[in-house]
Amino acid sequence: MTDSEYDVVVIGGGSTGTAVARDCAMRGLKTLLLERDDIASATVGTCAGMISSGLKYSDEPDIMAMCSKEVVHFNHIACHIIMKNPILAPLLELSDAASDSSYVDSYSAHAEERDVPAMLFLTPEASREIEPMLHPDIIASVYYEEFFIDPFRLCMLQALDAINHGATVRTYCEVIGFDINNNTELEGIIFYNRVSGTTERVSTKLVINATGPWAHKIAKLADEELDIRLNKGAHVILDRRVVNVGITVKAIDGRWIYLFPHENTTLLGTTALDTWEDPDSLVASFDEIEYLLQSIETILPSIRETRIIRTMAGVRPLVPEWKRPEGKVTRGYRIIDHSETGKTKGLISFTGGKLVMCRHMAEAVTDLVCKKLGKAAACTTHTQALPGNDADVDVAALSKDFGISLHALERMRARRGTEMLKVLELTKEHPEWKTTICTCEPVIEAEMRYAIREEFPQTLNDLRRRLRLGTGPCQGTFCTYKAAAILSEELDLGGDDFLVDILDFRAERWKGIRQSMRGEQLAQEELTLGMYSCVGNLDQSDVDYDIKPWEEGF
Amino acid sequence: MKLKSDILVIGGGMAGLVAGIIAAESGATTLLLRKGQSATAYSSGAIDIIGYLPEATEPFSAPSEGLAAIAGLYPLHPYGVVGYGDNVAPEEVVDTIIERVRDSVVWLKDRLEGTIASVVGDFQSNFSPISILGTTKPTCLVQTTMNPGDIHEREDSVLLFAGITGYPDFNPSSASKTYLEDRIAMGQPPHKVGFCMTKIMPFGKSFNISSIEIARHLDHKGSIETLAEQIDVQVKRIGATHVAIPPVLGIRHALKSKLELEKAIGAEVFELLGFPPSIPGLRLQLALEEVYTKAGGKLLAGHEAISSSRKGKTINSILARSPRREISIDTKAIILATGKYIGGGIAGNENGIRETVFDIMTVTGEYHSAKDIVPSRVTHRLEISPMGQQIQTCGLSIDPQFRPIREDGLEWAENVFAAGAVLAGYNYSVEKSGLGVALTSGYGAAMNAVDRIKGVA
Amino acid sequence: MNEDEAYEYVKSTLKKEMITPYHSDELTIVSSVSRCINCGLCINHCPVVAAIGVDRFSGPRSIAVELSRSPPEYWSTADKIYLCTGCGTCKEVCPKNVDIPEIVNLIRARIFEHRPDLVPKGFMLVNEIITEHGLAFEPWADKEEKEESRDMRLEHLGLPFIPDIVKEKADVLFYPGCQAEERAQEVREAAKVILDLFGVDFTLLNEFSCCSLPSRLMGNEIKARELAKRLKNKIKKLGVSKVVTTCAGCTSNLADLAERDDWGIPTYHLLEFLAEEIGYARLTQALKGKRLSESVHISVHDPCHLIRHTSRRIMDYAMDILALIPGVKVTASEAHDSCCGGGGMVSYHSKDVADAVVKENLIALEETGAERLVTPCPLCTAQIESNLFKSGSSIEVDDLTVFLAQKLIKE
Fold first, then answer.
1. Are residues A109 and A161 in the same domain?
2. Which one of A86, C167, C288, C403 is most buried, counting C-beta atoms within 10 A?
3. Do C308 and B302 make contact, defined as CB atoms within 8 angstroms?
């Protein structure tokens, strides 16, 4: 096979697409992954990272069992990017607990395999000791534990592992058509390279459409109909861990919403709105922010005193069930073989699914791929670790050896596990790269350089996904220009591109900041404008800046 | 605890300190209360008067040109208000504005002369100093250490950007590319630009170095020679006529360092406009504080005004709080110079925008009440554009004496004057007018306060 | 599991995850640090950054936007968080008044609880002394030796000895603080001389105990709360109406405790007490006619716990009072944002850092040309004195209380 011939092309660099590429590559298939933007740049990047026990899906016992098993697998293959959150569900009235108590038993049934306790009940006094912000009138709370993964790193590690096993991963390549022969067999795939501005074609035997909320659009390119239900979910993000444990509560419409410590922030989410909008243009609305705040306020009355740094919104690609609220739609996934539902042979699509199932989805579709290609190879994605998971890292010793702050290294460990040693190696030749670039997370220059060289980012936003660059309280106010300069150096960009990178990154941050602007974020924005507009004069810059989808209309 | 003053200034940035200096120089006992430092201490070293009209893309070549445009288009802009008064005829308004702004610029230049933040430039024209990004912006005055000289006029000028290894705030490679592309596009000199790295190691390390460490280090005797040696080689390499370095030449002795460097390498040296935490901002803050205390003003740091008591149409005392004490301050006049969101004079949440010390009515840039606005709705989808963010124009509306007004258009109190970023109606980051408005309004508010004290006495 | 067992289980899980729930009285501190906009003004003013650079001490802004965001990771701040001297300069210059000194204490408390192995060894020694004696310094083994030392000091300074008084229902409790109680006894004695001179109805504690600040600074929150409670009980039992101290650290800490624990009585530094309760008129009167043997040129060091943790007005009082003394010339030092380096217990584990911090002050002090430095805090006095001595300087250091007592009694 030549470089333009593949066994399988996976479209989509989200959690599912990268998992499929990894599985295919590990089973010896010649695999190409095509992503329109960047790895984890859409739906998965806007989730809370919970690899859910399936607690909310007690009507679907099989799915709960599957979720639980997948949590065990993740803890086995990616423990370095996983954190456990204790969670309280405080109750203000007994009816809160009584109305759907079935989950207590079904959650508890699988608890042991995940090494967490069965659901517990706590007194109001104990609850308020654990979380003093709780409303004084709560009557009890339910306690349970869930695991959380860094969704960006998960996708990145799956993609890197796919590459390690021989796959090719290409970002900024947007699929624009398929070659389908007269026998309705898919033979090739045509895509537009957004970096070079050229159109390319490769031959392939099979295409896996893992494009989430765009799945129906991709299917359409092959003239196939695909039903999908798109559902918008928004989060509000707080600047730090303001709660000691996760908190869940029923919102005004009876849905469960949550406040979860996540990395070094807190996430308040989520909403669920059926949507027909272009996912690229969506932002959180005032209503969504209020829905979340008002609902969490019922048990955390002082929540508005905390600092909101931004919002994020994404689109869930649900299985198309009509006349059901979002919460009642199955959380299972469907594999659609278009040769069965339509006519195109060689195109397989996904709908539905959850972050926690991405490996399972990949396994199932790769089984099907292998069957179609007549390849006998067993799945090993649940037994073979992702890069960095190998063993514990002694960050204290590394901090002493390399003369780098302990906290910076602990944060790096949480992203990279044992792979962090490769980053630190760079500082031996370049001690100046020990310099902190993002002061909030923090991120040091060596990790930026390493990520630029090894993890194929094209923009500062891509770097953010790999490093959490600019995701802290200042939202990149102080790292945007420093990081842009380093990216420029590594990619040998021109002066205009340096400024475009700054403007692009600011635009993406502003997309989330603007919706929830209040409190100190007004001061933060005054500062940002003071720097980039007043001093840098970038508001008057005539560089070639492309208006983003959410900025259009002006 | 108790205190007394004729004039009480709340806020210690440019507007507050200018007002305090005027008040103290007039002989009034002046007390300046400051809860923390402000946006002035972040400033880049440039003192903008007016660079652009809001939403416009052509810079003004001179402040007077911009002021005239403002007077015509935005009569309620703080610069517009400068032109009003009982004895100003309508046709004299524009000239009055220009004259009063010029007066305050001349006054400031004079007061800063000989301090660590002395400035160059004059009211006649704007010029274009270079930022650490390699971009340029129109401004009126810059600190003497930041004077780019004849770089843009001299046909044979060659600029060298000198960075410092392990100092992340300035990357000379990106800045030089940006700057050169811009000059080529404009077809103007310099036609040749280069960059180099130098090593300055305040604590013996070449990583994680901050501006303040370098500035302190260069303040020490002898440290400038090492830098000069390194730059000299690079100047010779590319034949540089000018050298741009980040704004870290020193705190107390930056000007001396500049002159020493120039002497050693035979090229003009200037600091670039930089971002916070800013050394030029620190120099300006310290210089203004020194001028203020020398004029006899009393600075009370670490105290926040938390409440006030009113007697008829005047506010006659303020309660101030320090971390663990409270002080009651009796006063005859108050100048409110508390800044905007950074300074904390104006605060906002999802329910509206409010003034934080007295709860005086706030307005938007269009002079509608800002009491109930949702901040995100007064923003633009583009973060960085000439349209700016309207939310940054919210603040207090004032009468011609710089007194904040109520909904009925009358002054909120007879003896409360306001100045600086707490005022509504200007968008300093897009207009490039921040310190200029602070200066002019601080100057004007204090003049009015002094008149009142003298009248009362 | 019943609810109690469940709670025990959850507590053990939290312990494993290194989460100590925020106390309700800590929530204002957390919300204060949330206000940081990362501007870095504090970096320009932090005396520790000035002394050792941001690579070694990443500075107040990093504490706010980086180090304090995630409690389970607080342990990993141990290489930075103990270097803060708690001077409060950052908080004072901060446009948002972010409460860095308090979040530092909170983080230290979490490390103390979850990773005692990372707490500096020097702290543990002090911790043992506090636990054993209720004092921050090892008390004198021999009471007579302690008295001899006291008498020698008094004789050297030319101060009379006023016997200790312990009684209920006095107007004022004089609280000298551990340093003056055990080490700088002359400060304790000088304060008694002054109080006695003005006829103040005062008492001492029956048995002195620490105000709890050192325990808070090292992170032993449990011990700190226990000491605070002990002190409150003693004060309540005495039935005084005011507390007066001569220690800057005690001044700010007693103010905190009085508010947090509802003491219902005001606390003063002696300088405040003299300015506000005795009044400049009586002070002037008392200083009148005292013929000073010679004029003296002094400079004044402002203790962080007075100017930044309490109020700058207290040092205005100090200057006012010094101006009342005939023959005293004061030259202000040019050292901005100064700290003696002795705060935050930094000298207990990183003496080089504490000494580097004070160094800036010493240079500025030499430039004043003053022959003597006075400061109203026995801890600052000790820190500066030992560093001046090491540097071979001829400048002498006095606690302001001692300096004032000498002037008041001098014939």
1. no
2. C403
3. yes
What was the pLDDT predicted at A2? 66
How far, in Å, CA of A364 to CA of A379, rounded? 9
Same domain, B289 and B256: no
Q: What is the pLDDT of residues A455-495, one digit of tens each?
A: 999 999 999 999 999 999 999 999 999 999 999 999 999 99
Which of these three, B221, B238, B272, is where a domain ends? B272
Q: Are residues B239 and B309 in the same domain?
A: no
Crossing angle between the packed helical segments A61-77 and A358-373, to the nearest 10 degrees = 90
Residues C327/C296, Cβ–Cβ less than 8 Å: yes
**B299 and B242 belong to one structural domain:** no
Mark yes or no for CB contact A440/C66 under 8 Å.
yes
- Indicate whether C364 pLDDT > 70: yes
Whether residues A133 and A162 share a domain: the answer is no
Quick one: C152 and C273 in the same domain?
Answer: yes
Same domain flag for C166 and C262: yes
| Whether C284 and C256 share a structural domain | no
- Do A131 and A199 share a domain, yes or no? no
Average of pLDDT values for A91-107?
77
Same domain, B138 and B25: no
User: Alpha-carbon distance A170 to C273, whole Å?
Assistant: 74
For residue C267, what is the enclosing H or E element?
A: strand C267-269
C-alpha span between A506 and B15 (Å, rounded): 30
The pair of three-digit structure tokens given for residue A464, joined into one six-digit string = 């953010």
The 10s digit of each residue's pLDDT in B51-67 is: 999 889 999 999 999 99
Determine the distance from the C-alpha atom of residue A420 to the mean position of all C-alpha atoms in its chain, rounded to a whole number: 21
Q: Look at A496 and B181 and tell me if their CB atoms are within 8 Å.
A: yes
**Is the preceding omega at residue A442 within 30 degrees of 0, hence cis?**
yes
Alpha-carbon span B412 to B405, nearest angstrom: 5
Read off the tokens for A492.
């040998």
| Token output for B191 | 């036609």
Find residues 116-175 of chain B whose CB sits inside 8 Å of chain A.
131-137, 165-169, 171, 173-175
pLDDT confidence of residue A58: 82
Choosing from C241, C259, C278, the residue where a domain stops is C278
DSSP for A364-403?
HHHHHHHHHHT------TTTSPPTT-SS---HHHHHHHHT
Could you tell me which chains touch chain A, where touching means 3 or more CB pairs under 8 A?
Answer: B, C
What CATH number is associated with residue A110? 3.30.9.10
Mean pLDDT of A316-334: 90
Is beta strand B352-355 parallel, antiparallel or unpaired with respect to B46-47? unpaired
Tokens 């010779």 belong to: B236
pLDDT per residue over B106-150, tens digit each?
Answer: 999 999 999 999 999 999 999 999 999 999 999 999 999 999 999
Q: Is the peptide bond before C163 cis (omega within 30 degrees of 0)?
A: no
Residue A89 token pair: 């569900």
Q: Residue C223's domain is classified under what CATH number?
A: 3.40.50
Rounded to 10°, the helix A495-515/A520-529 angle is 160
ipTM of the complex: 0.98
Judge whether B175 and B243 are in contact, CB under 8 Å. Answer: no
What are the beta bridge partners of residue B127? B139
For residue A308, give its domain range. Answer: 84-145+229-317
Instruction: Say if residues C334 and B116 touch (Cβ distance below 8 Å).
Output: no
Q: Which CATH number goes with the domain that contains C77?
A: 1.10.1060.10
Q: What is the number of domains present in chain C? A: 3
Whether the pLDDT of residue B210 is over 90: the answer is yes
Containing structural domain, residue C57: 12-119
Residue C321 CA to residue C187 CA, distance in Å, equals: 17
C272 and C284 inside one domain: no
- Interface check for A265 against chain C (CB to CB < 8 A): the answer is yes
Q: Which helix (H) or strand (E) holds B324?
A: none
- Residues 501-540 of chain A whose Cβ lies under 8 A from any Cβ of chain B: 502-503, 506-507, 509-510, 514-520, 522-523, 525-540
